[in-house]
Amino acid sequence: MEDQEILAKFHDPAARNVAFNQLVRKYQRQVYWHVRKMVINHDDADDLTQDVFIKVWNHLEGFRQDASLYTWIYRIATNECLTWLKSKRHKFLLPLTDVTAELSVQLEADESLAGDEIELKLQKAILTLPDKQRLVFNLRYYDEMPYEQMAEVTGTSVGALKASYHHAVKKVESLMLQMVG
């Protein structure tokens, strides 16, 4: 179902729940994996994905359609991830390196990466990036999102995103070479 149809149904009080269920079915998997790449842990990603859709439910009636529904939902998911990572550091008074180390340990325990040494090393390298740079890397590399859409999601200019992605790729390449060699 197209986003416009979902939105039209959502504005009809009798069809609101059906429309929202269709929206969740359409975007839940993408949102979950977007969040999971940022927070690593399945349970945390599951909780945050629920939080994202609660926010979508609460704000969908006021959605102005300045951006596509997809990028609007991704922006909410992105903000939830960044807020969660920031609060995790503040709650435990952890420097960035300790949070990275904790997430790295969770990566090693992740059954979905079992036996895939290259992907595990890639994920560990990505974890060393600053949160926003990691976000840009994930959106471009894994989600293959065009820079224009990324700009809508992050509220950053296309030029800045290209530069950020370039720097992230160089850092990841360098770390991968160190780990392999």
Show the helix and strand layout.
Elements: H1 3-10, H2 16-39, H3 42-59, H4 69-91, H5 96-109, H6 117-127, H7 131-141, H8 147-154, H9 158-180
Helix pairs in contact: 1-2, 2-3, 2-4, 3-4, 4-8, 5-6, 6-9, 7-9
**What Rg, in angstroms, do the CA atoms define?**
18 Å
Number of domains: 2
- The top-level CATH class of the largest domain is Mainly Alpha
In terms of DSSP E residues, the strand content is under 5%
Order of helices and strands: HHHHHHHHH
CATH topology of the largest domain: Rna Polymerase Sigma Factor, Chain: A
CATH architecture of the largest domain: Orthogonal Bundle
Strands, count:
0
Oligomer: single chain
Describe the global form. Answer: globular
Class per helix and strand makeup? mainly alpha
Number of helices: 9
Q: What is the makeup of the main sheet?
A: none
Write out the CATH superfamily name of the largest domain: RNA polymerase sigma factor, region 2, helix turn helix motif
